[in-house]
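Quick one: structure tokens for this chain, please?
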Amino acid sequence: MPDEPYEPERAIAGTGMGGQMDLAASEAVTLEKMPRGPDGTERPAGRPRSLWSDAWHDLRRNPVFILSGLVILFLVVISLWPSLIASGNPLQCDLAKAQEGSQAGHPFGFNGQGCDVYTRTVYGARTSVAVGVCATLGVAVLGSVLGGLAGFFGGVWDALLSRVTDVFFAIPVVLGGLVLLSVVTSNSIWPVIGFMVLLGWPQISRIARGSVITAKQNDYVQAARALGASNSRMLLRHIAPNAVAPVIVVATIALGTYIALEATLSYLGVGLKPPSVSWGIDISAASPYIRNAPHALLWPSGALALTVLAFIMLGDAVRDALDPKLR
């Protein structure tokens, strides 16, 4: 007589006491796996979190991210509305008060030209943050587009971009600034931003190129290609969202570097020029009076160092949150 086919339902929910015990045990395991809400009731399992939601979940619990974010938020606010904490005019100077120390209403004292150091330090944040943000956006967009296209299509375009980036990497940044910006007579921030974009995009392009090459080899991209997806759809829908994380990390760290570069070029006299208000200009003007009026050098230098440190710390926190290998 042939054996009866095995029926899982019948084996679990048998008519005997053993079957009832097996069914109760099965239901208990199922109930243990079901998530429960605060009131103890069962809740359906939620969707798995994406890379970005996991990163935000980690960032909210990272004290380095919170501290650097608060500092950057404060800098952005005073850059947009410096009159909130500084009521004076940064261009108004009184030579009779040159190199004087802290006074009532002037907590940072005066520089060598009799200008209020506190007011100029606050208004200098606007220039530095504007230059850093605009240069970073320009570098990120140009480098991501060129590097992403080279990594996706490869071939002659990839080889040509690699040789061009090698040429730009061979140019010292400060020396290039001295040569290119020395012929510029404009007091605007745009020549400085254009110079930073010109020499900064190769780094982002190489990061974007490598990230795109890695992303396009994934199975979901190959499946989209097999289903007839166009190149633009694969780039924008499948590759770009999964290749942009390294670009964001490098761009965030580079933002602080561009702020320091603007101050360096302004200190050397080829960046922003008076009557523009910049931390680099104030540091350069206060250097000859470092013995008689060190406060005029201390405050803009401290503001510059704190700003650069805040952006570097923010970039490190974002990198740790977006890098799966560090989890």
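The chain has 13 helices and no strands.
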